UniProtKB/TrEMBL annotation:
Coiled-coil segments: none
Transmembrane regions listed in the UniProt entry: 7-25, 107-126, 146-169, 175-198
The species this protein was found in: Clostridium tagluense
Any one annotated GO CC term: plasma membrane
Identification of the protein by name: DUF2179 domain-containing protein
């Protein structure tokens, strides 16, 4: 239950960031940077009677069916929550903070801020195996079946929308929108990688038994043991290898420092760990 609550809290924070980036920076400048939201902006230009939110709901319903078929029901539930949550947040912003125009009148500056804020939010949502709906669902399908990075998959699925934006709002806006899609894709991948970073740790110490016990009993992690021979001394020593979260690594480093100041520690940044105690290999 705690895990589920944490997932939905992170999704909600991510949605808030996406809504802020989209509403305050992209919409006032007609920057349709892909997605159902961008497509809704284009349709709204030609059919002003239909609100952006209403168009998004209709388009998302169609893609929800596709998502349930190809990705599964758990993803669909989170995506429905995310899509409705994002639409609701944008609707609230429209009612409480009506925008009469651009904040700075600097198209490039607002593109960068809108994309970066929204991409961080999308990265948080994607990292919880959810989506804000729309072309995000297509990106998830490409990720699942073709192992394409989510950011790059999103870039492909949004390319058509940027072409339509160029036709609807002019080539200048279209080129800015395409630039925004590219930045968005790479930023999402960077955010997801950063959130999933773990530490692979190798330890050589004369207090190996105590360190192993601390890793297993206090940190609740496993470890693998190797026997290695030093090139200079020709002495055989035991190498303890484990994978830890960032907070767990800090605890281990403090513990080793307290009991063996001569310990030898090597660390590696690992961007994805699948299996028991980490991310489900089926996700």
């Amino acid at each position: 239950m705690k895990k589920i609550i944490k997932e939905y809290i992170l999704i909600t924070i991510g949605l808030a960031l996406v809504a802020v980036g989209f509403y305050f920076f992209l919409v006032p400048n007609n920057l349709a940077v892909g997605g159902v939201s961008g497509l809704a902006m284009i349709i709204n230009l030609y059919v002003p009677a239909l609100s952006i939110g209403a168009i998004m709901i209709v388009l998302n319903l169609i893609l929800f069916v596709i998502g349930f078929i190809f990705i599964g029901s758990s993803f669909g539930v989170k995506t429905i929550y995310s899509s409705l949550g994002l639409s609701g947040m944008i609707w609230i912003l429209e009612k409480t903070c009506p925008m009469s125009g651009s904040i700075t009148n600097d198209l490039f500056l607002e593109l960068i801020f809108g994309i970066l804020i929204g991409a961080v939010g999308l990265g948080m949502v994607f990292n919880q195996n959810a989506s804000t709906g729309g072309t995000d669902i297509i990106a998830k399908i490409l990720y699942k079946y073709f192992h394409l990075d989510i950011g790059k998959a999103l870039l492909l699925s949004d390319f058509l929308v940027t072409i339509l934006a160029g036709i609807a709002f002019g080539p200048k806006i279209g080129m800015y929108a395409l630039l925004g899609v590219i930045i968005n894709g790479f930023t999402i991948d960077a955010v997801i990688a950063g959130m999933n970073i773990c530490k692979k740790v190798e330890v050589v110490s004369s207090r190996g038994e105590e360190i192993k016990r601390y890793i297993i009993e206090e940190l609740g992690r496993g470890a693998t043991l190797y026997t290695a021979k030093g090139a200079y001394t020709n002495e055989e020593k035991e190498v303890i290898t484990t994978v830890l979260g960032k907070k767990e690594f800090i605890k281990l480093k403090i513990y080793i420092k307290e009991i063996d100041k001569k310990a030898f520690i090597i660390t590696y940044n690992v961007h994805e760990i699948l299996g028991e105690g980490f991310k489900d290999i089926n996700e």
